[in-house]
Amino acid sequence: VQLVESGGGLVQPGGSLRLSCAASGFTFSNYVMGWARQVPGKGLEWVSGIYSTGTAYYADSVKGRFTLSRDNAKNTVYLQMNSLKPEDTAVYYCATGVGVGLDGMNYWGKGTLVTVSS
Fold first, then answer.
1. CA–CA separation, 114 vs 88, rounded Å?
2. What's the pLDDT at 40?
3. Whether 23 contacts 77, CB under 8 Å
4. In the prediction, which pLDDT does 67 show?
5. What is the DSSP code string of 16-38?
6. How many CB atoms are closer than 10 A to CB 67?
7. Rounded distance, CA 48 to CA 30, Å?
8. Rg of the chain in Å (alpha carbons)
9. DSSP state of 104
10. How large is the average pLDDT for residues 34-55?
11. CA torsion, ordered 94, 100, 104, 106, to nearest 10 deg
């Protein structure tokens, strides 16, 4: 299983970024995909998860601002992040598993850094 994140970077508050996660080594369409984030020195925070059907769930902290989608033909998930806030600054990790929450994730990518700052 390989998960490769991309799209992180520096953005001003109120701006947008789109993270991508390219997956390989498993039957992508059969599994849940998700994202979590971690601020250095703090614990891992679940952000969002999406079933193979496209049904997505979000943490309250990002609901209404982030949109998770998947392209089963391209084995890729996308996290569109709008109205970014400084508190969204973190390393974002892509994951796959059988459940949308942290406990359901079995494999993780190496992460991509998102910095929201003026």
1. 8
2. 87
3. yes
4. 98
5. -EEEEEEEESS-GGGSEEEEEEE
6. 16
7. 17
8. 13
9. G
10. 96
11. -20
Residue 35 has pLDDT above 90, yes or no: yes
| Tokens at 55, concatenated | 């049904």
Looking at residue 72, its amino acid is N
Q: What per-residue confidence (pLDDT) applies to 44?
A: 96
- Work out the angle at residue 55's Cα, subtended by the Cα atoms of residues 96 and 35, and round it to the nearest 5 degrees: 35
- In tens, the pLDDT along 10-19 reads 999 999 999 9
Q: With the C-alpha atoms ordered 66, 96, 101, 98, is the resulting torsion angle positive or negative?
A: positive
**C-alpha angle 52-66-31 in degrees, rounded to nearest 5:** 15
Please give the angle made by the CA atoms of 83, 88 and 92, to the nearest 5 degrees: 115
